[in-house]
Amino acid sequence: MDFGIYFTLGLEHITDINGFDHMLFIAALMAPFAIKDYKQILILVTAFTVGHSLTLALASLKIIPFNPTVIELLIPVTIFITGIYNLIRKESATNSKTISYLIALIFGLIHGMGFSNFFQSLLGKESSIVKPLFAFNLGVEAGQILFVFILLSIQFLLLRILKFKFSWWKNALSTLAVVVSAFLFTQQIIS
């Protein structure tokens, strides 16, 4: 397969509504940030991409073993923790942005392992994973940035036009992440 195909598959993997847990995590990550913080949001999304790219590569090469069932349980836990952190964090804390970056990077490692089974099935008989991995991750990053743009547009509509308070936005998005991730976790346990 060529670069464009893997790029498109990465983009579609993120924008597919069936993979909404990834979008929910991105939403939870960026909930405490306003439009004016777009640079920090891009750093968050990129930190997440770096984390999941690393484990995606290592897991695809079978360098790190993992249990897919455990990873599927941990993904909603990462969303839950991120949402809870948003609800309890103090905006005035000097290290709150650093903690958000670390959350994005570390939890990205877990999400990358979740991607690896899908990615391995795409590889088939490829002799090298470098080009497919790079193209796939660029597609994932493009999908994430598109989603961020959509969320920031909604934020603009609610805050600037409808005059909602930023704290409402942050708390509503974070609470949604907590509730949905708890539901996803419960579904994983039951099934």
UniProtKB/TrEMBL annotation:
Q: Name one Pfam family in it.
A: HupE_UreJ_2
Superkingdom of the source species: Bacteria
Q: Which parts of the chain span the membrane according to its record?
A: 17-35, 42-64, 70-88, 100-122, 142-159, 171-190
Provide this UniProt record's keywords sorted from A to Z.
Answer: Membrane, Transmembrane, Transmembrane helix
Q: What is this protein called?
A: HupE/UreJ family protein
